[in-house]
Amino acid sequence: MQDGLQIAGFAPDASASVRRERGNVIRLAVAQALAGANSTVVYATGAVVGDMLAPTTALATLPVSVFVVGMALCTLPAGAVAERYGRRTTFLLGAGSGVLAGLIALLAIVCSSFWLFCAGTFFGGVYAAVVLSFRFAAADCVAAARRPRALSAVMAGGVFAGVIGPQLVTHTMNLWAPYLFAATFVGQAAVAALSAVILAGVELPPLTAAHSSAGRPLVIIARQPRFILAVICGVVSYLLMNFLMTAAPLAMKLCGLPQESANLGLQWHVIAMYAPSFWTGRLITRFGASVIVAVGLALIAASSSVGLLGIDVAHFWATLSLLGIGWNFGFIGASAMVLECHRPEEKARVQSLNDFVVFGTMTFGSFLSGGLLSSFGWSTVLMLSFAPLLAALLALIGFSFWPAAPRS
């Protein structure tokens, strides 16, 4: 009878815990979908608006580069805020930055201010930096065996971002004549505000500075070959995705293709980025992160190869779709590697360090893409992508069998 009472008393607690886990993952997935529209709007319009406002064509992609700078600069501060005040506080601050990004960009377009538009995309990057921690937050709130699936489930929310973002651009870009894309950024700010409402209900385990200080020094963790491999693969996957996606809309415009075609191309690209996430976690569990990363890098190589075959709409769409799938396998696989490299008390610092390195390096790709496109053309941009791919594959071969560090 006593055992029966214990079981009866335990079951509701266990059931409530599972419901809380699922609720958190669902909220984070929905927020990922809404927040992904922020990034998609910037990538779809940043280079085009930059070309309209910039003093020279070489600076056309600078707003997108500034967006990436905002991501890179805010990954470590976002981790510190989460450690001190909790992840939910960080999420709400990020969503507020997303609202601010839309309002500043709106003002910049109305006032024809290129540098003010860059300031708006910077705050968009701040928002995107916080969104990146959604995947790790989901992994933190479930059992270790379910972490790859929770991580990929949140990333799967980006499938809807692939529809929301491009359709938002298509249906609003001409609403406020003569200010092209002005209404788009009003919509982007509204979507960010809705994301904040959803994130307010997230309940996650607290991250405390005292807990994190019990871990190993960060420099020791960063020296692990497995961590180095994870960072390299994450850097190359995201660097090339950003490098090619930043240049693609402007390249399509320079090839005489309509903006609607560029919007649809980005829509399928973003869907391709996140749709495989429904299965990526299971594939990682079955085949291992290294194998999935290798497949991702091969798909990115196929993307560049297809792009070199022609400049029709179909070539651009196929390039962007393959690029999205390759990024999904490469980046989620690399993120799963990061989870193997830290102990529970070290997670906030290690995850923030990983994202800082990934997006700090990615900044250079954003800065280069616009100048290379305007000076040498789309084919040169595509051909340059093979060098980092080769470096990542060599690293994968060299370090893939190195054992992961033990975790408590």
UniProtKB/TrEMBL annotation:
Cross-referenced SUPFAM superfamilies: MFS general substrate transporter
Name of this chain's protein: Putative MFS family arabinose efflux permease
Entry's transmembrane regions: 25-46, 58-78, 90-108, 114-138, 150-169, 181-206, 227-246, 266-284, 291-311, 317-341, 353-376, 382-402
UniProt keyword annotation of Membrane present: yes
Classification via Pfam families: MFS_1 (PF07690)
Organism domain of life: Bacteria
InterPro entries tied to this protein: MFS, MFS_dom, MFS_trans_sf
A GO term, aspect molecular function: transmembrane transporter activity
Domain Major facilitator superfamily (MFS) profile: 226-408
Species lineage: Bacteria, Pseudomonadati, Pseudomonadota, Alphaproteobacteria, Hyphomicrobiales
Entry keyword set: Membrane, Transmembrane, Transmembrane helix
